[in-house]
Amino acid sequence: MLIFEPVRDALRALRANLLRSVLTTLGIIIGVGAVIVMVSVGTGAQIQVAEMINNMGADLLYVFPGSATARVRLGAGTTPTLTEDDAEAILREVPAVRVSAPYLRGRGQVIAGNQNWSTTVLGVTPEYFDAREWNLEDGWPVGAEEFRGNARVAVIGRTVAQNLFPDQPPAEAIVRINRVPCRVAGVLQAKGYAMGGWDQDDLVLVPMAVARKKVLGERALSGRLVNGIAVKVRSPERVSEAEGEIRELLRQRHRLRPNQENDFWIRNQAEALETRAESSRTMSLLLAAVASVSLVVGGIGIMNIMIVSVTERTREIGLRMAVGARRRDILAQFLTEAVALSLIGGLIGILLGLAGSFAFSRFGNWPAVIQPASVAVAFLVSAAVGIFFGFYPARKASRLDPIEALRRE
Prior knowledge:
By secondary structure, the chain is an alpha+beta fold. 55% of the residues lie in helices and 19% in strands. The strands form 2 sheets. It has a 6-stranded mixed barrel. It has a two-stranded antiparallel ribbon with strand order 2-3. The chain is elongated.
């Protein structure tokens, strides 16, 4: 028997029971489609997390003040415990640290012409731009001496620029931040939303001295106290090392006894983002595993229908064997039918999976990345399901006794 003959006979048999064949493939269709969608969505989530890591800095640590306790704990940052001297000590005494940038933080109303916008105001030193790897998109380079002195200059985020200057370039414009006039030096490159959902581009940066004395005024911390320190490590691999050394250094500087809690806390950007990435991977694997159950159910459906088909076509099998068909010919025919059912379902499932991934990305506002490898694996798995679950009915058909088969009604 030629190789294409089992395929021809299998397609003829499937066409004779078209509705039953379509219903049999539903499990495979749903399973393959769901696996492709879940893998593409999971891959998109991992890419999104990787972009967040790049935007927020895998080699970046934030040091915040501790919490105050007045019958109840009031939350992180309620006790000012960090100073500019702490930032200088971190840079000086922790070898793994490349940049240590203290900053002040507050809210401010920014006015430009007849436009106004409430935003976050940061008082920073020149090192802050290096720590965040934040360059200007528009405007002129801001000199370090301007951000170290009392120059009334400001650098604004993309969101602030869009709201205050919808129809003109912001550079060189004058804005009033809490009634303090400042010249706009430029617009920062867009960084998008952070992991917590806050807009990183909705802020204004001014020199720390100007923020402390003028812009934030009485709302700013006194002396050399700061709201936080941005620490850039020399490489992502040394983040854990730097975190431990910073913790020990600050405990010594703040004269904390061994039994005392830290009066500060350190946020590791990479760890927080990696936790989210791990959660995304775990959820993707879980959903893919659930979707794979549909493949098993589909395979069982194929086995069930093939067993019924063998029972219905017993006389046909006996007749074919009586006129010279060998056992392996019968085995090949029924196995080909099972594989054809599975492959057809797999192909339809792949098309539905691709369409579902596109729809998820387009209308769900979530990145979905199609992996050619996942499509190929889904197709091969569908073929394997057909072979695995179709072998027993095909073997049962090939083992029939021709005489007994012809005697059955």
